[in-house]
């Protein structure tokens, strides 16, 4: 502003800019180019004891048919203005399928993973491969793969769905297509997709994947809990249960390339032993955690989130996170790290001191 510029002249400029569909960067730069990520999503937790009865109520009231397609309760982060996403880049949800039900076959450009919480008898067919689902199993549905779910058992089944849907939406890359038949034909015997090109142990990386990038999804579609459990046990023995932190981590990998399981999504498993103290870690990119086993709490941004089996919680980008187990605990994680790594912008940092807990999260309970 020169000495002779008047307030009216400036107002006139801003009015004309606005009419012309132009925004002056100097008025918004601080919101845009923040010194570190400012995710709109907030740290949040969805307890199983709230979600499960609602999923059971939905099984009783809402059939799974063409139209609705899926009985899915999506995690809606309260920071995202009602959008049905767990965080800015990640879809997380609880899916429920009653006995004898079948969720119709379709495909879409967003990629998906399932992590099974409880039950048996469901199989997901992925591009003709029928994959049985059991507790602790990870099943991949890569982008544009045909998929349908069938409950051939006599009890309802519940699992976690993770998708890169918000990322693909941000890229305006969503395509969806229903299969001409409700159930796609199954090719060959059930469960052939878990006998991958290499044996099970090569399908994990200790810690996390840091290098390999692969635009192709993993040809291995199923990671059985027995293999994951054995690998966690092996890692825990090799590192004396992650001596300092009390946590050992693995990432599920594409056994051909060593990359994360999908080009957009990283899946991990973390075993935490009680009585150790880990320092807070913050990472760029979002993470959704699913408690598979055990009890404990996590501190995110100075707030304590108590959890138990079946709970789901989200750590938004750059929020300091530390996990504490009250009993031996296993956490599944879903993250967008492969995308940040592909772009060369991934960051992570371990803080020097534990966080001071200033509040405890209390979820809202439906009356
Ligand atoms: O099971 O195909 O949670 O298409 C969201 C979208 C699950 C699925 C979700 C989907 C599915
Ligand atoms: Fe789907």
From TrEMBL:
CDD domains with a match to the protein in the record: cupin_GDO-like_C, cupin_GDO-like_N
Keyword Oxidoreductase: yes
InterPro entries: Cupin_2, GDO-like, RmlC-like_jellyroll, RmlC_Cupin_sf
Residue ranges constituting the Cupin type-2 domain according to the UniProt record: 94-161
Membrane-spanning ranges: none
The keyword Oxidoreductase appears for this protein: yes
A Pfam family reported for this protein in Swiss-Prot or TrEMBL: Cupin_2
Name of this protein: Cupin domain-containing protein
GO molecular function: dioxygenase activity
Keyword entries, A-Z: Dioxygenase, Oxidoreductase
Domain of life: Bacteria
